[in-house]
Amino acid sequence: MTRTALVTGASGGIGSATARDLGRDLDVVVHYNSDRESAEAVAEDVEEHGREAIVHQCDVSDPDAVEAMVDRAHDELGEIDVLVNNAAVLRMAPLETASNDDVQRTLRINLEGAVYCARAVLPEMRDRGEGWIVNVSSTAGLVGSPSDVVYGASKGGLLGFTKSLAKQYTEHGIFTNAVAPGPVKTEMFAEERRPATREESPIGRLITPEEVAEVIRTFATTTSMTGQTLVVDGGIRL
pLDDT of 73-106, one tens digit each? Predict the structure, then answer.
């Protein structure tokens, strides 16, 4: 039976690695906001493994656009079995200097976007009695962010959202969990912060997007864990 995953923010970093990883066995909706070229490269990798992929651009903070994305997925690939809420922005600004637009954009993309995507796929998952939702949070959601208060708040909100979904929908066969990566070797994590982070890490290096994707894959198939958050940080928070 063909299964389909929707991965938001899949044009780079954790999202790209996750779409490629899941795309070994599932058809994939490769969502992106601005980098179509990279999203198309991800889709090509999925198709090389014999799976189908569609590339779709939308602003996940727009609920109508999210509904349209899910409708297109239904038409071209079928119902969504796995949702990975990964799309996020990081502004790196002190709160007192952050603009209203920056605050609203961060909360809307990082938190509201996940809510809209989940809402769009939950009815079909509930009717089918099966589904998996994985929310990509951050250690900033657990211990706070020293560089972006609003980002930390949005990622903390995702953890509460994860637990609430699990409490409401696990009885319908829908398993919702979260991953909380620490510093990951992506474009989002500033190069100048990497040496210090490597020194703090027991494993002596940054986590890779592919390592986070492996954990997401586990949560995308589990029927024994729900409402859980797994920290993927190489032991920095020990």
Answer: 999 999 999 999 999 999 887 899 999 999 999 9
Integer Cα distance of 160 and 123 in angstroms? 21
Question: Burial level of 35, CB count in 10 A (0-12/13-18/19+)?
Answer: middle
- Which helix (H) or strand (E) segment holds residue 105: the answer is helix 100-107
Give the containing element (helix H, strand E) for 37.
helix 36-48
Could you give the CA distance from residue 233 to residue 207 in angstroms, rounded to a whole number?
Answer: 6
Of the residues 32, 116, 151, 169, only one is catalytic, namely 151
Q: Rounded to an integer, what distance in angstroms lies between the CA atom of residue 50 and that of residue 212?
A: 23
Look up residue 207 and give its DSSP letter: B
pLDDT of residue 237: 67
What are the backbone angles phi and psi of residue 136, rounded to the nearest 5°?
Answer: -90, 100
Helix (H) or strand (E) holding 74: helix 63-76
Q: Specify whether 151 is catalytic.
A: yes
Chain segment 101-151, per-residue pLDDT in tens: 999 999 999 999 999 999 999 999 999 999 999 999 999 999 998 888 999
pTM metric for this prediction: 0.94
Cβ-count burial of 141 within 10 angstroms (0-12 exposed, 13-18 middle, 19+ buried)?
Answer: buried
Beta bridge partners of 27: 4
Long-range contacts, 18-21 (Cβ 8 Å, 24+)? 18/84, 18/86, 18/209, 18/212, 18/213, 18/216, 18/217, 19/46, 19/53, 20/45, 20/46, 20/213, 21/210, 21/213, 21/214, 21/216, 21/217
Cα 38 to Cα 2: distance, rounded to the nearest angstrom: 25
Q: What are the φ and ψ backbone dihedral angles of 42, each rounded to 5 degrees? A: -65, -45
